[in-house]
């Protein structure tokens, strides 16, 4: 009985932690109404780093070239591609004077490192204000540049945007991928909203070039192949210089992975960067994920045994109701509301998936960016 008492009271503490995260931290974004912005016409350089992305560039680059914005440059960075990416870039540049190509060749010191290629692109950009996306992304509207740049000000020099994934009908994997993307966005938007920004995504991110040089670029994590987005933001973002942009015209959309193995490889690489986060960020993220895992474990154990089951059911319902509202209002903002129908399944699937990645990364390190 003593052991069960310990488990029960631990469960109460875990539920309280989850309520704080979902109700207060994530609620800061879920129930936040964005402020009105004034359209901007400041000159912007859009950066796209591509490695063997000829097919995606052919499909998605026109959606950026056709943006409804008066003054923007596109910096296409060819990261030592082995396909015809460079030739495709050159064919676009022949017809569009606002395209600049940066052709990066592999060097022994920076072999296969995206950060090296992206650094050369940032240095080559004409304009101070930078807007970054990936070669497999496309803006969901012609007002993407306008919406994102409208949030720049003398104070706001880092803009966190949302990069969604395309919806695939009748695909459970697609729903799990989109839920993971949604939850990640809720986290980085919410933490930024309460004054402790910790990451952004390179699929949709804007910042002033001066912020890049202020942190000496990627030098403090150049040894890690990934992290050109989240590790840079983790280092450069503050409560004063960071703001959010989540109007639906500001979204980008990317092609999602269609096999579990490919997504697994991608997420292993992404998760490996977390060890470089600031201690406070690592603690808060670790507390959230561990409390999620323990919530499910303790719920199952206590319900299976029937120990104080009335109180256990009440606490489970309380947590799910608060989670439902926090995730639901956020999902509505980010156009992912269809995921709410199977929320418990998606949450449990993601917990199991993330736990396997955690174990795998303890055993070996992922060493690829593409």
From TrEMBL:
This is Glycosyltransferase. Pfam families: Glycos_transf_2. GO terms for molecular function: glycosyltransferase activity. The chain crosses the membrane at residues 6-32, 283-305, 311-329, 341-363. Residues 45-177 form the Glycosyltransferase 2-like domain. It comes from the Bacteria. Belongs to the glycosyltransferase 2 family. It comes from Bizionia saleffrena. Gene3D superfamilies: Spore Coat Polysaccharide Biosynthesis Protein SpsA, Chain A (3.90.550.10). Keywords: Glycosyltransferase, Membrane, Transferase, Transmembrane, Transmembrane helix.
């Amino acid at each position: 009985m003593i052991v069960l008492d310990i488990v029960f009271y631990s469960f109460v503490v875990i539920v309280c932690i989850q309520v704080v995260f979902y109700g207060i931290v994530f609620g800061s974004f879920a129930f936040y109404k964005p402020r009105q912005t004034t359209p901007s016409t400041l000159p912007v350089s859009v950066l796209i780093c591509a490695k063997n992305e000829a097919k995606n560039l052919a499909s998605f680059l026109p959606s950026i070239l056709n943006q409804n914005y008066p003054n923007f440059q596109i910096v296409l960075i060819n990261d030592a591609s082995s396909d015809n990416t460079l030739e495709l870039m050159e064919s676009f540049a022949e017809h569009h004077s606002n395209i600049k190509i940066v052709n990066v060749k592999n060097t022994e010191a920076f072999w296969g490192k995206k950060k090296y290629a992206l650094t050369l692109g940032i240095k080559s950009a004409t304009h101070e204000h930078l807007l970054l996306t990936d070669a497999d992304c496309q803006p969901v509207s012609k007002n993407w540049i306008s919406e994102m740049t409208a949030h720049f000000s003398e104070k706001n020099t880092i803009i966190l945007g949302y990069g969604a994934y395309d919806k695939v009908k009748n695909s459970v994997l697609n729903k799990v991928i989109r839920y993971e993307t949604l939850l990640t966005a809720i986290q980085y938007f919410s933490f930024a909203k309460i004054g402790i920004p910790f990451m952004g995504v390179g699929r949709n991110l804007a910042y002033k070039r001066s912020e890049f040089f202020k942190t000496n670029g990627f030098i403090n994590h150049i040894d890690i192949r990934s992290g050109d987005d989240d590790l840079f933001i983790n280092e450069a973002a503050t409560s004063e210089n960071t703001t959010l942009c989540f109007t639906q015209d500001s979204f980008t959309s990317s092609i999602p992975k269609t096999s579990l193995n490919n997504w697994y490889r991608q997420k292993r690489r992404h998760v490996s960067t977390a060890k470089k986060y600031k201690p406070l960020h690592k603690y808060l993220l670790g507390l959230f994920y561990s409390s999620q895992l323990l919530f499910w474990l303790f719920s199952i154990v206590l319900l299976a045994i029937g120990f104080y089951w009335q109180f256990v059911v009440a606490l489970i319902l309380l947590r799910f109701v608060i989670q439902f509202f926090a995730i639901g209002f956020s999902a509505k903002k980010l156009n992912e509301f269809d995921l709410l129908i199977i929320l418990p399944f998606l949450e449990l699937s993601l917990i199991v998936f993330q736990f396997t990645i955690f174990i795998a990364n303890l055993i070996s390190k992922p060493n690829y960016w593409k």
